[in-house]
Amino acid sequence: MKAILKIGSLVMVAILAVFALTACSKEDPLEKVKLAEVTRSIFYAPLYVALEQGYFEKEGLDVELTTTWGGDKTMTTLLSDGADIALVGSETSIYVDAQGATDPVINFAQLTKTDGTFLVSREKIDDFDWEMLKGSTFLGQRKGGMPQMVGEFVLKKHGIDPHTDLELIQNIDFGNIPNAFASGTGDFVQLFEPTASVFEKEGKGHIVASFGEESGHVPYTTFMAKQSYMDKHPETVENFVRALHKAQEWVEKADAEEIAKVVAPYFEDSDLDTLAVVVERYRSQGSFAKDMKLTKEGWDNLQAIMDEAGELPEKVDYEKLVNTSIVEKGMK
Fold it and tell me: What's this protein's family per the entry (predicted)?
């Protein structure tokens, strides 16, 4: 009888050991994170690299990306819990704050630190001068959005009043601006990549200047979340930033051709050569924020641009809507 009990005990121990090993071998389920991006552009190459290279998965995250096409739509998606994190211009967090939000939207990591748009002319211009815009029809971006405000800032920098020296069109929906220009609207247009380079390749337009080079450093597109989400999921946000930082480092060192191959699935209408050219163009002008920290200098420059455009509701202290501790932890 004792022998039977002893054998039974050994069998039970073996079963428990197998169960324990099986349980340990199973990976913990990935945590779902809903991310809304304001547009689809090579400008956001580090994000697509993080997705394609598995950096998020290595940090235990399953990131679901949605393109919401416009700052207003992106912020609405975030505020209504359609997204946990948004990638959008920092100006949107200031607009939300001005509306008296009880759950403020916090900027916690910067993806790009320059404007990402280019001035495209319908006609080929060998020796471009900003004075050529006077008297022209300029197809700009949505009023109150970062592209439009930077565009106006740069025009004024060159002595051009966008509201009196040219015909400014800014009532076209963000996602339809390229089609409007391709259909014949405007002498000049402000476009993101890769659309600008695709238009140039197809003979629909010609890149004549970079708004990013003209405007200086600004927190152009940042990752942000509601304070309540950050309070409930501090490790999630930190892991999110850590994955992005690894992607930023990879983009900084990799060949443009290699980066183009990685992000190609997000740009089915663009060839690899065009993607590589655009990646190098953004990288050479310092658009990718490899340190990911939104600085006070950048924040002040942002508000100066908003104020110049007449779109700053009221000045907001840097500490109120910016949290740099996540980046500081995530980059260690």
Answer: Belongs to the bacterial solute-binding protein SsuA/TauA family.
